[in-house]
Design a protein that fits this description.
Blueprint (H helix, E strand, L loop, with lengths): L2 H26 L4 H15 L8 E7 L2 E9 L2 E8 L8 H14 L3 E5 L3 E10 L2 E11 L7 H9 L3 H5 L2 H11 L2 H8 L2 H15 L5 H11 L10 H16 L10 H10 L1
Helix pairs in contact: 1-2, 1-4, 9-10, 10-11
Length: 266
C-alpha cells in the first residue's frame, strides 16, 4: 500500500470516534435534513479527503428537483449523493431520484446516505435497462462492525481510493465472486465433467451432467444464488450432452447412444 493510501486509512480510522459521537448527538436532537447535509459535507471532506470547493457541487438541478451533491474530480462527475435526514431508514424510494439523474448524466456511482448510514450503488445496464446494483453499506456508528472493516469500506469512498479506481476494482471483484457468477461456473460442462468422472472413480456410480446439475442446484446452492432459471439450465446441459453424444466419431460415423454410454463409463 502506498504512503498516501496508508495516511488516508489512518485519517479515517482516527476520525470514526469523532463522527460517531457527532452522529449520536444529531440523532438525539432529531436534526433536520438540511443540517444533515452539513454532517455529510464534513464526512466527505474531513474523513474522506475531498475538497469542499473543488470536488463538491450542491443543489444540482434534476428535472424540476435537485441532487444534494455531485462528487467531481478534474471535471468528471464521479458520484451522485442523495442525503436524507439523519436517523431516517433509507429505502429504494429515496434512491430512485438519484439513480435517474446518474443514468441521464452517465454517472457510475450513487451514494444514498443519512450521514450515518452510507449505501453505495453502481449503475449498470441489464439488457439496456438501467439498474442500481447495491455494492455495500457501511454505518459510522455501527457497534457490531469492527472499526477495521468500517475503515476499509469508508476508504473506498475516499479521494485517495479514486486515484487508483479502487472502488471500481472492489465492485468487479465482488461480481467475480458473487454467488450467481460462481454458480454459472460450477454448472458449466467443463466442471461437471470433472465431478462426474470423480464420482465414477470413487463410487462406481454413473451419472449424467444434467443429473449432477440438478443435485447441485437442489442440495448445494443456497436460495439467494438461485436467481437464474434452474429448470432451463438443466435442460440446456442435457441438450448439450445429447448433442455431444451425436457427434461423428473418428471414422465419420454417428456414435449416438454408444458415445453417450462411453462418456458415462469415463
Amino acid at each position: 500500500m502506498a504512503v498516501y493510501q496508508e495516511k488516508a486509512a489512518e485519517r479515517i480510522k482516527n476520525g470514526l470516534r469523532k463522527f460517531s459521537t457527532l452522529i449520536e448527538k444529531a440523532i438525539g436532537s432529531r436534526m433536520q435534513e438540511s443540517d444533515t447535509r452539513k454532517i455529510v459535507t464534513r464526512v466527505l471532506t474531513d474523513l474522506l479527503g475531498w475538497d469542499e470547493f473543488e470536488n463538491l457541487t450542491g443543489e444540482v438541478p434534476i428535472k424540476g428537483s435537485y441532487a444534494d451533491f455531485v462528487l467531481k474530480n478534474h471535471g468528471d462527475n464521479l458520484a451522485v449523493i442523495e442525503v436524507k435526514q439523519v436517523g431516517l431508514n433509507l429505502n429504494e424510494k429515496h434512491l430512485r431520484q438519484a439513480k435517474d439523474y446518474a443514468v441521464n448524466e452517465g454517472i457510475e456511482w450513487v451514494y444514498l446516505t443519512n450521514g450515518n448510514v452510507w449505501k453505495i450503488y453502481r449503475i449498470v445496464f441489464v439488457k439496456n435497462v438501467p439498474d442500481a446494483k447495491h455494492v455495500f453499506t457501511v454505518q459510522i456508528n455501527d457497534t457490531e462492525m469492527k472499526p477495521a472493516k468500517k475503515t476499509e469500506l469508508l476508504y473506498l469512498l475516499s479521494e485517495e481510493a479514486f486515484r487508483k479506481n479502487e472502488l471500481s476494482d472492489y465492485y468487479e471483484r465482488r461480481i467475480a465472486l458473487s454467488g450467481e457468477n460462481l454458480a454459472s461456473r460450477i454448472l458449466s460442462n467443463e466442471v461437471l465433467d470433472k465431478i462426474r468422472i470423480g464420482i465414477k472413480a470413487s463410487s462406481g456410480h454413473k451419472v449424467t451432467n444434467a443429473e449432477l446439475a440438478e443435485a447441485i442446484i437442489d442440495r448445494v446452492l443456497c436460495n439467494d444464488v438461485k436467481t437464474f432459471d434452474c429448470e432451463k439450465t438443466i435442460r440446456q446441459i442435457a441438450a448439450s450432452e445429447n448433442k455431444q453424444a451425436k457427434k461423428p466419431n473418428a471414422n465419420g460415423a454417428s456414435t449416438g447412444k454408444e458415445s453417450l454410454q462411453k462418456n458415462l463409463n469415463n
